[in-house]
Specification:
Blueprint (H helix, E strand, L loop, with lengths): L3 E2 L2 H21 L5 E7 L3 H17 L2 E7 L5 H13 L5 E4 L9 H7 L11 H9 L7 H11 L9 E5 L6 H8 L7 E5 L6 H6 L3 E4 L17 E4 L2 E4 L2 E4 L11 E3 L5 H21 L1
Parallel strand pairs: 1-11, 2-3, 2-4, 5-6, 5-7, 7-8, 8-11
Antiparallel strand pairs: 9-10
Helix pairs in contact: 1-9, 6-7, 6-9
The protein binds 5,10-Methenyltetrahydrofolate.
Protein name: Bifunctional protein FolD
Pathway: One-carbon metabolism; tetrahydrofolate interconversion
Catalytic activity: (6R)-5,10-methenyltetrahydrofolate + H2O = (6R)-10-formyltetrahydrofolate + H(+); (6R)-5,10-methylene-5,6,7,8-tetrahydrofolate + NADP(+) = (6R)-5,10-methenyltetrahydrofolate + NADPH
Length: 283
């Protein structure tokens, strides 16, 4: 058996095609969406992600604004940039690229962002609204995972989903999305304290591997035919390594590769959040 590839790159391109006319309509109505990024320091990975986001904006016609700050920028200077973006009418949504250098206190900076301009869906107000079931921008990676599964007709209704990793960007929020009535999945959140990871994984119809541990998910753990999403990335001496062992492709029914899976979907959902927020503001 060889898994059907959940092609995040092609799906992202399809979503961009759908966004383009919506952006054009907003521009016509004088309400052009604008995405800003705040990038601190010169980490090559972060720089390449941010560059990709600006290229994406150009592709769908969204104006983009770059705020690149030196690695040794002060907390007060980042605060000033956040205040500036909160007040800038050309910026309808923005992100502060994570992780920030250790000398900066990320929590207060993220809370300082205007919730109405939260493009990541990771502002405490947005996460609170997600818990409450109120309308809010949704966290991009979990939303991208669900959209990728939906567009490949992978059943979520009643499905057993094993999530591995309890991080704030993926593991923690994805359970909130998947247990809404619209998804209706049963979610098990696994982490380093999980006693028998293999047995949890073996029961799952869908596995979301977001632990950041290379090759953590091996073929023997996976139920034949399950959908497996490789979300974690680790930089190793041999290049980028995902959380899923390549041989899982022989057992799984569906597999999202890494790269080429959830990463591009995260970017597609970032732009979707920006467009939706601009549409909401139109009333
Ligand atoms: N505030 C904030 N929001 C984020 O959404 C955020 C962040 N900080 N910090 C870092 C992580 C990571 N992340 C990725 C997005 C796209 C790809 C992506 O498109 N990757 C391509 C490959 C890109 C390459 O080759 O470098 C792929 O998987 O095919 C990867 C990683 C967003 N993050």
């Amino acid at each position: 058996m060889s898994a059907t590839i959940l092609d995040g790159k092609a799906t992202k391109d399809a979503i961009f095609e759908e966004l383009r006319p919506r952006v054009a309509k907003l521009v016509e109505q004088g309400r052009a969406p604008g995405l800003a990024t705040v990038l601190v320091g010169d980490d090559p990975g972060s720089q390449s992600y941010v560059r990709a986001k600006h290229n994406d904006c150009a592709k769908v016609g969204i104006k983009s604004i770059r705020k690149d700050l030196p690695a040794d920028v002060s907390q007060a200077d980042v605060e000033a940039v956040i205040d500036e973006l909160n007040a800038d009418p050309e910026c309808t949504g923005y992100i502060v690229q994570l992780p920030l250098p250790k000398h900066l206190d990320a929590g207060p900076l993220l809370e300082r962002m205007a919730p109405a301009k939260d493009a990541d869906g990771l502002h405490p107000i947005s996460l609170g609204r997600l818990v409450l079931g109120e309308e809010a921008p949704l966290p991009c990676t979990p939303r991208g995972i669900i959209e990728l599964l939906r567009r490949h007709d992978v059943e979520l209704n009643g499905a057993r989903v094993a999530v591995v990793g309890r991080g704030i960007t993926v593991g923690r929020p994805i359970g909130l999305l998947l247990t809404r009535r619209s998804e209706n999945s049963t979610v098990t959140l696994c982490h380093t304290g999980t006693k028998d990871l293999a047995s949890e994984i073996s029961r799952a119809d869908v596995v979301v591997a977001a632990a950041g541990v290379p090759k953590l998910i091996t073929p023997d753990m996976v139920k034949p035919g399950a959908a497996v999403l490789d979300v974690g990335v680790t930089r190793t001496d041999d290049g980028l390594a995902g959380d899923v062992h390549p041989d899982v492709a022989e057992v799984a029914g569906f597999l999202s590769p890494n790269p080429g899976g959830v990463g591009p979907m995260t970017r597609a959902m970032l732009l979707t959040n920006v467009v939706e927020a601009a549409e909401r503001n139109l009333g």
